[in-house]
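Hi V.,

Quick status before I head out on leave. The structure for the redesign project is tokenized and pasted below; the design run finished overnight.
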């Protein structure tokens, strides 16, 4: 069996986790601090808050921006449901922007048109959650300009994009956004088993995020409203959550982060091999990244088959031969929860068309040449057979 994605855990990670288990801190302590600092250094960003997973990171981002009932948040229909759920947790409305069929990220022209219409009807969003699909960064410079023109916040859902670059900055630097969120689930480019993080340039946002991440409680006595209590005292200022990361998770994350550049190099190499060897088959492949400054971290490799039946056959055939395949993603607006809110088939045609033909093939750091050859060979067989019919 060749899985679709898989974590790469070496002895170093095992040793780091065991060492933490043998120390006196296993919940949030020095390892989380160290992980946050390492991530800040990597992304070249001022503030990092580690948290329990990518979904809680997105929720914290919305909380920090005070998103609530009556607000609108826009995102991509081709993402994991968490990109939209974060706004629903806060009582806000969610809407979507159709994708660009080539990058599979939100379409800039669709965004511009939707913003112009929203301006006329006084229904501009409070925040836009952009998703760097498969690790390919959205055009953040343009999105940042639009955010200034129309007045909305930008959250980057960078769950696919740790280690990716956009122009001359790392995704997570927040050069063109208010915040970025990461996930360290094992299918992502680095893992903490479960884990997440937010990055921001804003000290004020970072401080709000920290408070919401730990019950809305502060232990900073300078901020206390009641100064008469003793050293045991803490104060709750907001309704927060327990979204903290543990030192065990952080110990794993620290070592994974040290290996990230090596992981990204390997993913790029594997993606390049697919792009070269699948080029002559009747498949639509991910856009080639020619500009040296636009460097994706290749979280997943998605091919598009000619039609929906062909995709179903390819999925079955590959699965039967022990190749792990997947579909990223069923459009969020078509999920029953969102249909109940009034979305329907036809709302975002590029997303729907992409979904009907998409197939994610194996891509992970420890994928061997032999395994990759097998995936390519089976894809060649499928397309040849289909051509004869
Ligand atoms: C994985 C993922 C998330 C959620 O992360 P978890 O750590 O699983 O909560 C959110 N957005 C995208 C795009 C993802 O791929």
């Amino acid at each position: 069996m060749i899985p679709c994605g898989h974590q790469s855990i070496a002895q170093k990670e095992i040793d780091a986790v065991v060492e933490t288990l043998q120390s006196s801190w296993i919940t949030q302590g020095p390892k989380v601090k160290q992980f946050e600092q390492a991530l800040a250094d990597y992304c070249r960003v001022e503030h990092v808050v580690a948290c329990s997973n990518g979904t809680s990171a997105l929720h914290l981002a919305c909380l920090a921006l005070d998103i609530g009932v009556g607000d609108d948040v826009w995102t991509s229909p081709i993402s994991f449901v968490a990109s939209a759920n974060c706004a629903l947790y806060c009582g806000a409305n969610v809407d979507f922007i159709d994708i660009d069929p080539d990058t599979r990220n939100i379409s800039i022209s669709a965004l511009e048109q939707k913003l112009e219409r929203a301006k006329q009807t006084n229904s501009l969003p409070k925040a836009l959650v952009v998703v760097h699909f498969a690790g390919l960064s959205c055009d953040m410079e343009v999105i940042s300009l639009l955010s200034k023109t129309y007045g909305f916040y930008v959250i980057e859902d960078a769950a696919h994009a740790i280690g990716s670059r956009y122009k001359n900055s790392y995704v997570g630097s927040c050069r063109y956004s208010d915040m970025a969120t990461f996930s360290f689930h094992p299918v992502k480019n680095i893992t903490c088993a479960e884990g997440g993080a937010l990055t921001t340039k804003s000290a004020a946002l970072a401080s709000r995020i920290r408070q919401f991440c730990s019950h809305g409680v502060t232990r900073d006595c300078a901020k206390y409203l009641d100064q008469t209590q003793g050293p045991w005292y803490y104060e709750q200022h907001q309704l927060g959550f327990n979204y903290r990361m543990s030192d065990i998770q952080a110990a794993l994350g620290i070592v994974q982060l040290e290996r990230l550049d090596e992981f990204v190099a390997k993913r790029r190499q594997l993606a390049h091999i697919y792009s070269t060897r699948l080029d002559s088959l009747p498949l639509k492949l991910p856009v080639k990244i020619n500009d040296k400054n636009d460097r994706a971290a290749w979280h997943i490799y998605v091919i598009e088959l000619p039609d929906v039946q062909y995709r179903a056959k390819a999925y079955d055939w590959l699965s039967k031969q022990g190749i792990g395949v997947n579909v990223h993603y069923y459009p969020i607006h078509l999920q029953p929860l969102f249909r109940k809110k009034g979305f329907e088939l036809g709302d975002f045609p590029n997303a729907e068309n992409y979904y009907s033909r998409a197939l994610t093939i194996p891509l992970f750091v420890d994928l061997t040449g032999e395994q990759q050859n097998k995936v390519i060979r089976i894809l060649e067989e499928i397309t040849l057979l289909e051509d004869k019919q």
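Above is the designed sequence. The longest helix spans residues 369-388.

G. will cover questions while I'm gone.

Best,
W.
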